[in-house]
Structures are given as C-alpha cells and as structure tokens.
Amino acid sequence: MNFIKVDSYDKLSAIAANIIASQVTLKPDSVLGLATGSSPLGTYAKLAEKYRAGELDFSRVTSVNLDEYVGLDGSNDQSYRYFMDNNLFCNINIDRNNTYVPNGCADDLKAEGQAYDEFIKKLGGIDLQLLGIGLDGHIGFNEPEAFFTKETHEVQLDESTIEANARFFASKADVPTKAITMGMMSIMQAKKILLIANGAKKKDIINKAFFGPITPFVPASILQLHPDVTVIYSEN
Predict the structure, then answer these.
(1) What is the tens place of the pLDDT at every residue in 79-114?
(2) What predicted TM-score, i.e. pTM, was given to this entire model?
(3) Number of domains the chain contains
C-alpha cells in the first residue's frame, strides 16, 4: 500500500488527478471506476483542466460508477448520474455512451446489480477504481455489516450516511434511504485502487481502515488485501 499524506485538499486533488491522468495516458481505452461526493470534486476539476490544456484525451475511456440512490433518475439534480455529468463528463471529451451508472430506478434492482457486474466483467474489469471513504468506513455504499457483500446490490443506508449526505439536500428528510452499490468483488478485482480522503474528521476512520484489523464492520479495511492501493489523505 502506498500511503500519501499531504497538507491541503488542493495537493490531494492534484496528486489524484495526476495518477488518473497517467492511467489514461498509458492506456487510452482504460476502464475507470468513478466515485461521487465532495472528495473527488477537486480531482475532477483538475482532470478537466488537463483536458482543456490538451494534455488528456478521454475519447476512448469507459467509466463505471460505484453507486446511485434508489428512486432518483438522471434528471434529478441529486442523482449521481447528474453529479457525474455536471462535474466531469460535460467538461471532458468522454463519450457519454461509454459512461455507466447503476440504475436506481430499475424495476428489479437485483437483476440490475447482476447485469452491472456482468457488464464490468465483459469490459475486462476496472483498470483504476477511485474511492472515497465514509465516516463509518463505507466504500461505495457498502455499509458496515456482519459480512462483505460481493455483488452489486441494494443497500439500506446507515443513519450516519444519511446525516452526512443531508448537506446536499434541502433537508435530511429528502435524503434517499436506499441505494444500489457496486459490491466488493468488482472493487477488489480492479487492477489499481486510489482512495482519497480529506478533513480531520476522517482521521479516525482512516486509521481503523488501513492500520487496524480487517473487518466487514469497517468495509474499507478489506482494501488492505489488495496488491495495488494508493491512499491520499489530507487533514485540512
């Protein structure tokens, strides 16, 4: 594991963007696993800067996102499809037809999860997976529980996750309580994993996840078993 501690969110974002840019440069048809939330916003902004400067070409890249809220379609401004379109995809030259987000409005979420996993397999797996980490240690929306769930699946969000995401909604009551999330199998089978975390409030869970025991009650701790993980952390 490569653990990088920096002193600012800007440096975190710059290093993360450089790692992703290197992946795309070395393999122009890369499959990128992407994340949402506040942590990757700076990384996505810097990738867009590199594209505008002529340093990066995303035209052959395929992306697969980790998760989506159940019940929100891509036209909803709180959906993760909307987030990705507005914070990254519309700012680079990726083919939107090659960008994939789980369908949180599918009639059969179990079948949607199975189809998503099969699709990732057909792509040859994920070349680089970008992750954030929740205060409870979740990656994607894989919440703490008694076991690691392998497949893409529907999940009931923990109260701490709902509270953390309430800042993006008009009120806590508006936050969806369920999501569909990529399971641990597709994440752990990614060739490279890049996890970013910022803020002093993440210090405790970072220590538990990467310097404590491997346990499904701290879902990110499973990353200790992956052969190629980079963690970038800033307390500021």
Answers:
(1) 999 999 999 999 999 999 999 999 999 999 999 999
(2) 0.96
(3) 1
